[in-house]
Amino acid sequence: MSDPYGRSARFYNPAVEPWLRSVKKKIVEECLRLKIFRVLDVGCGTGTLAGMLRKEGIQTVGLDLSPGMIRVSSGISRDSFALVRGRGEGLPFFCGSFHGVIFSMVFHENPISRRREMLDEAMRVLAPRGTLFILDYHKPSTLSGRAAAILEYLVERVVGGEHFRNYRRFMEEGALGDLLGHLPPERLRWEPVFHGSMALVRISKEQGAGSIEQ
Q1: Among 75, 82, 175, 87, which residue's Cα sits nearest to residue 135?
Q2: Using one digit for the tens of pLDDT, what is the confidence trace for 74-113?
Q3: Which of 2, 34, 148, 189 is positioned for an S-S bond with 202, CB 3.0–4.6 A?
Q4: Measured between alpha carbons, how far is 136 from 158 in angstroms, rounded to an integer?
Q5: Which helix (H) or strand (E) holds 33?
Q6: Is position 211 within any domain?
Q7: What is the DSSP string of 65-118?
Q8: Do residues 117 and 87 lie in contact, with contact meaning Cβ atoms separated by under 8 Å?
Q9: Reported pTM
Q10: 210 lies in some domain
Q11: Does the residue 131 lie in any domain?
């Protein structure tokens, strides 16, 4: 299987990380505030967020499908967090295995059928009263947000290929608003990012079956 991110993996951190660093720091702060100490970072990419979580004493597993991203992430992790190669729609973990699950800039690059499966899988491996964090593109409602969205469009256009096609469909279908529209509003906490062109969403899992695996 070809790796669409094989060539770009080593350039990802210098190009993208300065842009997302502050939001990732906010996710880490939220995990600490909510006492989330076992986390799965789905689509961990080069592993910067997983590394930030681990530095704060949070037990972290990073999962990514791209061999190129995994290679870069391995250099960052230095045995500080576990790395698993796999898909977000078929997580190789027991039900209720994590207090927190994170998708950082993952959903927009996948087709709609896969997005639904990933969301279902995340809720499956999440412990009761656990928290799901999603950072991704949102439909902006302000002029500054639309300007930011144009820049984001250009970045995605450079990536091109299937990634760009999935991004366009994601935006045309309503972005995060469409993906999460079926969930009860009381379980969602929305925070606009980059003038509303992105959103950081926190989703709480209702108490029910499943538990943290020891």
Answers
A1: 175
A2: 555 555 678 888 899 999 999 999 999 999 999 999 998 8
A3: 189
A4: 18
A5: helix 9-33
A6: no
A7: S-HHHHHHHHHHHTTSSEEEE--TTS--S-TT-EEEEEEES-GGGS-HHHHHHH
A8: no
A9: 0.86
A10: no
A11: yes
